Amino acid sequence: MKKIFKIASTLCILTLMGSALAACGSSNNSASSTNEPTNNSTSTEAAGKKDIPTLVWWQIGNTPLPANYSKAIDKMNEYTAEKIGVKVDLRVASWGEWDTKMNTIVNTGEPFDMMFTNNTKYSKQVAMGALTDITDLVQSEAPDLYKSIPSEVWDGTKVGGKYYAVPTYKDSSVSQYWSYDDKLVQKYNIDYQNITSMQDLDKPLHDIKAGEGKSFYPLRLIQSEAFSGMFNNYDDLTLGFFPVGVKVDDPSRKVISVFEQPDVMANLKLLHKWYQDGIINPDAPTKTEKEKYNPFGTQQAFPGAEIAMQINAGVEKFVMNKTFGPLYTTSTIQGSLNAISANSKYKNEALKYLQLVNTDSKLRNMLAFGEEGVDFKYVDGKDNVIERTSDTWPLAAYSQGTFFNMAITKGAPEDQWDQVKKLNEQAVASTVLGFALDISEIQTEVANAQSTFDKYKYELLTGASDPEKIVPKMLDELKKAGLDKIIQKAQEEIDNYFK
Fold first, then answer.
1. What's the pLDDT tens digit per position in 383-421?
2. Under DSSP, is residue 280 helix (H, G, I), strand (E, B) or coil?
3. What is the DSSP letter of 5?
4. What is the DSSP letter of 92?
């Protein structure tokens, strides 16, 4: 694989989260309801002042919400109302409910203005007509937002040659890190820096289990967060559907049935063994909300990310080791997007707001860290270093906007965001980088196959089911649902795209 093009440092760099700041005119585009923070109706200022629209923005995060959440959002709204004449009703879907909740909102036509989405949903939502084509609108109404994101990253959001979401400019390439509670590392003499495969991880996880006792689970999984990174070697073609992919380093770009690959089966079998041995919590396939503390974790991350993890988990020290990447795929670029509803009345205002998120550090920090003086404070009078003073702020910083106008957390490397940019510059490219599958002609097959996979995925990806029994059964049902047609159509599109 060749190295991905270096993104010039002179560009306003971005990753998977959009950037923002431009004078966007008020909009009266297509019909939708007007939104208030609590009842979806336009908020009216004192007599003589212009109406200030309040946009419903769905995000992902922790629930229940903290006691100061409404107050923190009110402070954000005071700031943005003054800056750009826009407020938000920022609603949070929990980690466990986000998948189902977003599907319900889109399928039922529930009013919203903006929504966090990602590669698992984006192309399907576009195919359903749920999202606004912002290709021309972002350039005319939010030019600073458009210019702040490299063209290559914008291109990663294209579906049928159009932009339907603002990408989050951050660690747009994927680097997988494994994290460990340092107390356990020291106690069990774990050589974590040389652990790079699931097979390497087997002994230390068993050592922890044996030493900590029957009720201690070293690997704590939930439905929506199984063993992250198991499929990093396969490009999902933006389908967000694990059973179909292309090996990221395959020069022939052959579309394959991923669960029929020997390496995938070997990892699933090991995961099942861990479940049987009590390494994984027994309620993993039914558990919907993650615990604050996880002795071992696997996640897409970057240098210094362990500092925020320590605070959130209430742990003295986490250590991390990079086990994969950095790698660029179209899906890694689509890992964090914010899209505007096709039915929103306030498309221009939504772009204006996303522009401010991505170019205004004060708003960016409030979204990422919460209420100043309660959830965080600035360190030594600096506006680019903060100290977290609570662990209750529920929003996920990666889902809102760029990292590169956001303060670093005290304890993280001072050049943290430069290191993230370097990861992007060093990333290798999937052989199908730039390609996004058009599912318009196979929507029925994709929906049926997804429904079939959903029946098995929680049990399979948390280790609860024996893959040697479940995978053949699942594949048989997937083929009946249209798996072969999806693979055939994907191959045709790839062959045409890379002529």
1. 899 999 999 999 999 999 999 999 999 988 889 999 999
2. strand
3. P
4. E
- In sequence order, which residues have a C-beta less than 8 Å from that of residue 494 and are 6 or more positions away? 237, 246, 253, 255, 432, 435
Q: Residue 382: which pLDDT band, with cuts at 50, 70 and 90?
A: confident
Neighbours of 159 (CB within 10 A): 22
Supply the angle between the helices 443-461 and 483-497 in degrees, to the nearest 10. Answer: 110
The helix/strand/coil state of 404 is: coil
Q: Torsion angle, CA of 97/99/100/103, rounded to 10 degrees?
A: 140
> Residue 119's closest CA among 388, 317, 337, 319?
337
What is the residue-wise DSSP string for 168-180?
A: B-SS-SEEEEEEE
Q: Which residue has the tokens 């990079």?
A: 322
For the sheet containing 87-94, what is the strand order?
A: 87-94, 54-61, 114-117, 337-340, 166-167
Q: pLDDT averaged over the chain?
A: 89
CB within 8 Å of 491: residues ≥ 6 apart: 254, 255
Rg (CA), the chain: 22
- Spatial separation of the C-alpha atoms in residues 376 and 281, rounded to whole Å: 33
Q: Exposed, middle or buried, 460 (CB in 10 Å: 0-12/13-18/19+)?
A: buried
DSSP state of 301: -
- Burial classification of residue 351, based on how many CB atoms lie within 10 Å of its CB (0-12 exposed, 13-18 middle, 19 or more buried): buried
